[in-house]
Amino acid sequence: MQPTVDIVTAPRFDINAYLDTILSFFVSNFPDFFRSISGYFIGLSIIVSMMLFLGIIYSVEKLKQIRRKESEVYDKKIEMGYEVVKKGEPELALKWEKVKTHIESENENDWRHAIIEADIILGELLTKMGYRGDGIGEQLRRIEKSDFDTLDQAWEAHKARNAIAHEGSEYLLSRNEAKRIISLYRQVFEEFFYI
Fold first, then answer.
1. What long-range pairs does 174-181 form, CB within 8 A, spacing at least 24?
2. Predicted TM-score of the model (pTM)
3. pLDDT tens for residues 96-108?
4. Is 163 exposed, middle or buried (0-12, 13-18, 19+ CB in 10 A)?
5. Share of the chain above pLDDT 70, in %
6. What distance separates the 2 farthest-apart alpha carbons in the chain?
7. Which SS3 state, helix, strand or coil, does residue 102 take?
8. pLDDT top residue among 137 and 77
9. What is the 3-state composition of the chain as percent helix, strand, coil, each rounded to the nearest 5?
10. How many CB atoms are located within 10 Å of the residue 158 CB?
11. What is the distance, to the nearest Å, from the Cα of residue 140 to the centroid of all Cα atoms in its chain?
């Protein structure tokens, strides 16, 4: 005969009851749980927000300092070495017309006079541009080549005028040479819109 074994059945696990128990625990304790975590997050977010806000203020102030230093270096006022002369001054137009009339004359003395008058106009131009000196030669020496594209033409024309003024009638002057010298003066005046 076989011994009888009493089989004890283990209680059956009821998943539904377990889930109901867990759910009821969280539902009953949820407000306390949420309040404690959300309180930490709110407190932490306020601290982080304040730090970020202070960081923004600090960055803006440093940027202002950098902009001030940049403006000191890059925004300096540029002062012109000369004044821009207005085009079409009536008095100048009259003087230049006299120069042109003299150079077209048949008389050699008129050519000489035209060159001397053109040199006087050059002196007025240099003075109006702010170049100082006792004479045109000294004014021309103070000019930077980069500021005056026709500086060589001005020098050549002025040297011819000096030769005419110092040598007088001994300086041989042909009509073509006189016209060439006047064209040198014209190039200088046109560079600065003086005629």
1. 175/108, 175/111, 178/103, 178/111, 178/112, 178/114, 178/115, 179/103, 181/115, 181/118, 181/156, 181/157
2. 0.53
3. 888 889 889 898 8
4. middle
5. 75
6. 165
7. helix
8. 137
9. 70, 0, 30
10. 24
11. 29
Distance CA 85, CA 122 (A): 12
- How many Cβ atoms from other residues are within 10 Å of residue 100's Cβ? 14
- Cβ of 98: how many Cβ atoms within 10 Å? 15
**Paired tokens of 47:** 């601290």
Place of tokens 């006087």: 120
Name the DSSP class of 150: T
Amino acid, single-letter form, for residue 60: V
Indicate the domain borders of the chain: 14-76, 90-191
Q: 111-142: per-residue pLDDT in tens?
A: 899 999 999 888 888 888 888 888 888 888 88
CA angle 116, 120, 124 (to 5 degrees): 165
Q: Is the dihedral of CA 97, 99, 105, 110 positive or negative?
A: positive
Distance set, CA 124 to CA 42, 69, 92, 127, 139 (Å): 79, 41, 10, 5, 11
How many Cβ atoms from other residues are within 10 Å of residue 143's Cβ?
18
CA nearest to 173, candidates 105, 95, 122, 125: 105
According to CATH, the topology of domain 90-191 is Four Helix Bundle (Hemerythrin (Met), subunit A) (1.20.120)
